[in-house]
Amino acid sequence: MLGPGKADLLERIGQTGSIAAAGRSMSMSYKRAWMLVETMNAAFREPLIESSRGGAKGGGARLTEAGAEVLSNYRKLEEIMAEAGAARIGAIQSMLRDIPDGK
């Protein structure tokens, strides 16, 4: 239904007002971005993104109230999981190899 990539796409659509621009900022094709938007809109009772045609001369996209609420709840859930899982994340990180230059 919603994961980190879709949440990032929602956030960037909200920031840019464009599905194409949001996708480009994530190195994602326009077709892929549209497919994800359609999938999210179909999964929820209310659409998360509304769009209008018009291309460079007036089209665009925006988060609906439901979209903003879903994104806000998802980001809060990420915070809760990071806090609750900090010890486990640290344990996993301690098992990683040292990588030169942080790559």
From TrEMBL:
What is the residue range of the signal peptide feature?
none
One of the record's GO molecular function terms: DNA-binding transcription factor activity
Q: Which ranges carry the HTH lysR-type domain?
A: 9-67
* UniProt cross-references to PANTHER family, sorted A to Z: DNA-BINDING TRANSCRIPTIONAL DUAL REGULATOR MODE (PTHR30432:SF1), TRANSCRIPTIONAL REGULATOR MODE (PTHR30432)
| Name of the protein in question | Molybdenum-pterin-binding protein MopA
Name its species: Roseinatronobacter ekhonensis
